[in-house]
Design a protein that fits this description.
Elements lengths: L7 E2 L4 E5 L5 E5 L1 H7 L2 E5 L6 E2 L4 E7 L3 E5 L4 E6 L2 H4 L3 H4 L7 E5 L11 H8 L1
Antiparallel strand pairs: 1-2, 2-3, 3-9, 4-6, 5-8, 6-7, 8-9
InterPro entries: 2-oxoA_DH_lipoyl-BS, Biotin_lipoyl, GCV_H, GCV_H/Fam206, GCV_H_sub, Single_hybrid_motif
Family: Belongs to the GcvH family.
Function: The glycine cleavage system catalyzes the degradation of glycine. The H protein shuttles the methylamine group of glycine from the P protein to the T protein.
Length: 125
């Protein structure tokens, strides 16, 4: 199971990467995509949408189930990965290369309340 050290993780199986411009890229973890199976649909929040930390802001769906996406912080959605509309299963192939949406946080980002790679591994073990 792949769990990169340079990301932080939510207990709801999203990963977060701080980009150079201060935005946050958000995707689902390898464990999360494995539990869902091959994705057939990704519903992303609209660009410009205001999201709240832990609030539902999208859905990832496979043939067997669907799971909510949660915002890691309060902020504004500034980008969505439009390629996933046509190829949602790209998340299954490379979950850490396929961000789903990006947020401009309303406040400076803090890793408090998130798990590092070791903490996330403990959560899913």
């Amino acid at each position: 199971m792949l769990i990169p050290d340079h990301l932080v993780y939510a207990e709801t199986h999203e990963w977060v990467k701080v980009e150079e411009d201060g935005t946050l890229a958000v995707g689902i973890t390898d464990f999360g995509q494995e539990q869902l199976g091959p994705l057939v649909y990704v519903e992303m929040p609209a660009v410009g949408a205001q999201v709240r930390r832990t609030g539902e802001c999208g859905i990832v769906e496979s043939n067997k189930t669907a799971s909510d996406l949660h915002a890691p912080v309060d902020g504004e959605v500034v980008a969505i990965n439009e390629a996933l509309v046509e190829t949602p299963d790209a998340v299954n192939d490379a979950p850490y290369d396929q961000w789903i949406f990006k947020i401009r946080p309303a406040a400076p980002f803090s890793t408090e309340g998130f798990l590092d790679a070791a903490g996330y591994l403990k959560l899913i073990s």
